[in-house]
Structure formats: structure tokens, C-alpha cells
Amino acid sequence: MTSVRRFAQWGLWFGGALVLLAAVLIGIDVLMRKFLDRSIGGADELAGYSLAIGTAWGLGAALLDRAHIRIDSLYVLFPQKLRLVLDVTALVLFVGFFALTLWHGLGVVSQSWTSGSRSQSALETPTVFPQTLWIVGLLGFVIVGMLLLLHAVGMIARGDLAGAGRAIGTRSAEEEIEDEIRDLKERAEREGRG
Q: Are the C-beta atoms of 95 and 142 separated by less than 8 Å?
């Protein structure tokens, strides 16, 4: 899982960089419109591509960090084994949904490639390029999700129910507090050295 985490972290950085670049581009475009009465042209299109691609590439890291939003009002009241059944079921459905999205997205990319589709903006971007980056991000997420599922099932088979819960379950309030305290300590140590 170390290599899977490393891959997901790279995807997160790539996706985050795209979203940050889109924000900068939009900011520049807004300032140009305000003060120069000019526009970059296509900033909204590029920002849309960045958001879709960045999201797809960041999904794997969010899954491994258990950062996806889940409603757990009753979940915390259930016994551990029932929670694990629900966690495994949720993971299978979540990854399955994105596998279907990936499958249908491949058809869209194939059609764009075959027909030579271009965006209807002034940029006339060949749509196959942003679509391919989006699809590769979704593929990475589906692979990460399947490997996480196999990892969790292996832990359950070995009897490590608590470990499986930490791998795929909802983060508890205690875990979130521990993470916050650890982050504060690390920040204090960095500032103490700086």
C-alpha cells in the first residue's frame, strides 16, 4: 500500500496544481477585464478542464485518507462487524460507480478521437486531450480503490478487523482530533526550528 499511497499523493499534487493554475488564470482574466478591457479568452474552458481533471486525479488520495464525506449518524452505533460489512459494501459501490463512469468515459474519448471533436470556444481545443487526462485520473482512482478493497479484505481474512476499519471505515472524531493535534505539534516544531 505504500506505493499506492505514493501514486495517490502524486495524483493529488498534480490535480491540486491544475486547480491552482486554473484559479490563477481566472484571477488574471478578471483583472484584465477590469483594468484593461481585455480577456485571455478561454479561461473558463481551461478552468473547467482543470477542475474535472484535478478532481479525478485527487479522488484516490481522498479515498486513502478517508476524506470523502459520509453520513455516519447511525454508523457509529453499530457493532464493528456490521460497520465493516457496510464499509466494504460502500467501497465496492463507490469504486463500481467510478468504474462505470470510466467505461462510459472511454466511449466518449474514443468518439472524440474518431470524430476529431474540438471545443466550441475560440480555443477550439481538441477534446480528446483533456478527456484523456480525465480518463487516466479515473483509471488511477479505480485501481487505487480496487487495491484498497483487496487490502481491506485481506486484513479481514487475517482477523485484523480494527486495521480494516482504519483502512476503509469512516474516520472517528477521536482520529480527527489526533490528526489535528499531530499537525499542530508538527507546525510548532517547524516554527521552533525556523
A: yes
